[in-house]
Amino acid sequence: ARSLAARAATERDDFELAKEKYRDERELAQHNSDVLHLIAATIHTARLAARRGRMDEAEDLFRDALDRSQRCNYEKRYIDALAGYAGFLREHRGNLSRANYYLGLAEAQAAREPEKRANIAHDRALLCKEAGLLGESLHYLTMSLDVRADLYAPLTSEDIKAMTKARIAELGKLTEELVDEALRVERCGTEREHLRLVISRLGDPQAW
After folding, report:
1. Which residues of 170-199 are buried (b: 16+ CB within 10 A; e: fewer)?
2. 61-81: per-residue pLDDT in tens?
3. What are the DSSP calls for 168-204, one per residue?
4. Whole-Å CA distances, 96 to 8, 36, 58, 85, 86
5. Are 75 and 113 in contact (CB under 8 A)?
6. Are 122 and 144 in contact (CB under 8 A)?
7. Is the pTM of this model over 0.85?
8. Using CA of residue 70, residue 124, residue 95, residue 44, what is the dihedral sign?
9. Which pLDDT band, with edges at 50, 70 and 90, does 46 fall under?
10. In angstroms, rounded to a whole number, what is the distance separating the alpha carbons of residues 105 and 119?
C-alpha cells in the first residue's frame, strides 16, 4: 500500500509525500527483515531521487540495491537493480558505456525471465539509438518485440490481450523509425522479410 501511494504521489509530482511513503516502506522492510521488499523500495527511492535532481543520492541508493541484491542471491531483484542502475546511468549521467555494461549483466541474468529480457532489450534499443547505432538498436528492439510476441501468444483473456497489445504499441513509433532507416540499407532477402514482418505486426494489432 505504501509503495502504491508513493507511486501515485510521484505521478502527481508530490515528491515530498512520495519520499515519505518510500521511507516508510524501507523502514518497515528493515523492521521485518524483508530483504526483497527493502531492495525494491531502495530502487524506487533511487528513481525518485534522480527525478528530483539528487544524482549523488540516487547513485548511492542504486549501488546499495545492487549490493543487497547480490548478497541475497535473488535473481529477479538483482536484475531489477542492474536494469535500474543502467537506466539511471543512461538517462541522468549520460554514460552509455557503463549503462550498456550493466544492461549486459542484467541480460545474462534474465535467461529464465522473458518479461525482464524483453524490457532489457528495449532499454538496449534506446541506448543504441542514443549512441547513433541504429542497426544495433533495431536488433534489440526486434528482439524485444519477438520475446513479447511469444510471451503473450498463449493469453486468452481479452482484457489481458488488450493490455499487452497496448504495451507493444508503445514500441511502435521507435520501431517504425528504425525500420524505415533499416530498409534504406541493402539487405538479404531473409532480413528484409523479417523487417516486413515487424511492419505488418505494427500495422495489425491482431497479429500479436
Report:
1. ebeebbeebbeebeeeeeeeeeeebbeebe
2. 999 999 999 998 889 999 999
3. HHTTHHHHHHHHHHHTTS---HHHHHHHHHHHHHHH-
4. 30, 28, 17, 12, 9
5. yes
6. yes
7. no
8. negative
9. very high
10. 14
